[in-house]
Amino acid sequence: MTPSNPLHDESGSTHPDRPGTIRLDGLDSTAQLMNRITSQLGTQLSHMSLGGTRRPAPGPGTGLGPGPGPTLVLVAHGSRDPRALETATALAERIRALRPGLAVRLGHIELNEPLLTDTLAAHPGGRAVLVPLLLGRGQHVKRDIPRAAAAAPHVETRVADPLGPHPLLAEALHARLVESGWPARPPGRAARSRHGVVLAAAGSRDPEAAADAETAAALLAERLGVPVVPAYAAPTAACARSVPDALASLAAQGRDRAAVAAYFTAPGRFATQSATAAPWIASAPLGTHPALARLVLHRYDQARTAPHRPEHRRLTAA
C-alpha cells in the first residue's frame, strides 16, 4: 500500500482531467477556499496511519463508514467451566468496541447456550460470517460449523478460517507467559539453554490439526528464542504427544525451566489439566487478549471480502 495524495477529495470532487487536485470552482472567497482545503486535509489525514500508509477505506463492516456489513458470529466450542462462557462473552464485547456498529453474536458448538444452530435460526436473514474461536483445523471447522450453516438457508453464510496458526497468537501467547513469570526480556545464552516451552493444545484426530499446532509452536519459538514443543491434553493417533511426555523430553535435554503455554481460547478442563502438569509456570488461556480480538476481525474481513463462490452453499452442506 502506498500513501495517497493528501489533497485528493474522497467525496469525488477532483478535477476530471487532473486526479488528485482540488476543484476551486464555486468558491466565493479565500475563507471558503481555506475551509475546503482544511476539511479535505482533515479527511485525508484521518485515513492515514502514523507510518504514512493509508488505512483501509471506509466501507461496509469496517465501522468507519455507512453499512454494518455481515453479522460476525463468534463460534466457541463450549465448556462446562462457567469461565469459558464468561470469556467468550467478554471477547465479543472487546470486538464490538474495536469495530462500533458491527453486529457480533455468539454461538457454541456444544455444552453452552446459545448453540450455534439457535443463533443462526434466530438471525433475521441477510449475511453472516462465522468465525471459529478454534486454533486449528479439525472436524469442528470442517464438518460441524459448515453443517450448522447449511441448516440455516435463510442466512447467507461464510465460514472463516480458524484463528491459528498466526503470528498474533504468538504475540498473545508470549504476553500470557510473561504474565505468569516468563522473563520479560530475552535471557542470556546460558539461561536460554535451561528454558523451554510446551505448547499445550487440545488435540484432534485430524492430522492437519497437528500440523497447525507444529506451525504455532514454531512461531512462538521464533519469538522466544527457545525450543517450543507442541503437546496435547487429549492425545490421539494424529496428536500423540502428551503434555507430561513433552515436559519429560525437555527435562532430558537439561531444560529444567520448562513452562506450559496454554494454547486454548478459554478456561476449561484441558487448560486446567495441562497447567497442573507444569513443573514451573503455566500461562493462562488466550482469553480476551487484544491480539485475539484483532485476529478475529482479521479472519472476519478475510472471509467477507473473499471472492464469492457459487458452490459455497453446496460445500457447506456436505
Secondary-structure blueprint of this entry?
Blueprint: H1 30-46, E1 71-76, H2 82-98, E2 104-108, H3 116-121, E3 126-132, H4 139-150, E4 155-159, H5 167-180, H6 189-192, E5 195-201, H7 207-224, E6 228-232, H8 243-252, E7 257-262, H9 269-276, H10 290-305, H11 312-317
Parallel strand pairs: 1-2, 1-3, 3-4, 5-6, 5-7
Helix pairs in contact: 2-10, 5-7, 5-10
Order of helices and strands: HEHEHEHEHHEHEHEHHH
What is the spatial order of strands in the main beta sheet? 2-1-3-4
CATH architecture of the largest domain: 3-Layer(aba) Sandwich
User: Which residue ranges are poorly predicted, with pLDDT under 50 across at least 5 consecutive positions?
Assistant: 1-67, 310-318
Please tell me the total number of domains. Answer: 3
For this structure, the CATH topology of the largest domain is: Rossmann fold
Largest sheet: 4 strands, parallel
Structural class: alpha/beta
User: What's the average pLDDT?
Assistant: 82
Helix content: 40-55%
Radius of gyration: 24 Å
Number of strands: 7
Count of alpha/pi helices: 11
CATH class of the largest domain: Alpha Beta
Give the terminus-to-terminus CA distance: 38 Å
- Basic shape: elongated
| Strand proportion | 5-15%
